[in-house]
């Protein structure tokens, strides 16, 4: 891996990078399109927070891929390790609606709202890709991956060998044996209680130094592997709820951001005095983002300093006033308001 330039901390990520297509009850004749996917979101959030972030992923040479790359580059994400192929780009459709009590809800699907076509699914980085990419990979402070796949595991091993802190946040176990191998290389394992059951034995056997379980409205359960100590962190209440998508990604980005010292070196993941404030910072960022449409909607409304200041106030328990959602006609060019189907070009 090549050496990094300057003093910016570097995060290398492998996993799910997709185009998010969002429709809400308030905008039935248009849809918002953002770069997304868990890996994509975390890379963009870290770039927004002052990192050099580089995702490794396979996407298509198509219109969704072009819009995805445009938004990544808008946020200064390094896109040189995105492999463009003659294959469709993964697309995730999110619908925002209100339940019978008027509470905002969201639902994800790979099926288009309008035409019913199914979008492409995730294509992992192949082992042969990792060999060809070896000389181009930056030396990261942190390596993040969110999918169980041989290529991602190899990249994680390489990064750990270079001294990077490895954060593993999968959406499923998929292949149990490969999942255990991924656990064995991780310094941090973060998972949703809703998606995983009976993991304690596997995680204990893997001796992961830091385990974070997200429990929705109950907050987080943090286990320090070295001591076995557990800390419960209650959820930070959102000052306004419009869309809770992306909350877990914000929490991860806040945690990673807190790991790194001013010289770009990762700190001890068993340090409770470091981990707890970093997680609270991530929870506050997530709560602020709930006020806006999309997994990273707050970034299109507030600059970095404003967002960080308001997150600090919220984490301290103070009341926070929020700017309104940017209306479609004044949205920056990086947020595409489509008027036709992203898959078949049919008018909305």
Could you walk me through the main structural features you see in this protein, from its secondary elements to its overall organization?
The chain is of the alpha/beta class. The protein contains nine helices and 14 strands. The strands form two sheets. Strands 5-4-1-8-9-10-11-12-13 form a nine-stranded mixed β-sheet, sandwiched between helices. Helix 3 packs parallel to helix 4, helix 4 (150-161) runs parallel beside helix 5 and helix 8 (272-289) crosses helix 9. 45% of the residues are buried. The model is unreliable at 1-5 and 327-335 (pLDDT under 50).
Specify the overall morphology: globular
On the 0 to 100 scale, the average pLDDT is 86
Alpha-carbon Rg, integer: 19 Å
How far is it from the N-terminal to the C-terminal residue, by CA?
Answer: 46 Å
List the quaternary state of the chains. single chain
SSE diagram, text form:
Elements: E1 10-14, E2 18-24, E3 31-36, H1 38-48, E4 52-60, H2 63-74, E5 82-85, E6 91-98, E7 104-109, H3 127-133, E8 142-145, H4 150-161, E9 165-168, H5 176-185, E10 188-192, H6 200-206, E11 210-214, E12 220-224, E13 230-233, H7 247-259, H8 272-289, H9 304-315, E14 336-338
Parallel strand pairs: 1-4, 1-8, 2-6, 4-5, 8-9, 9-10, 10-11
Antiparallel strand pairs: 2-3, 3-14, 6-7, 11-12, 12-13
Helix pairs in contact: 1-7, 3-4, 4-5, 7-8, 8-9
Q: Can you tag this structure with a few keywords?
A:
disordered N terminus; alpha/beta; globular; single chain; 14 strands; 5-stranded mixed beta sheet; 348 residues; 9-stranded mixed beta sheet
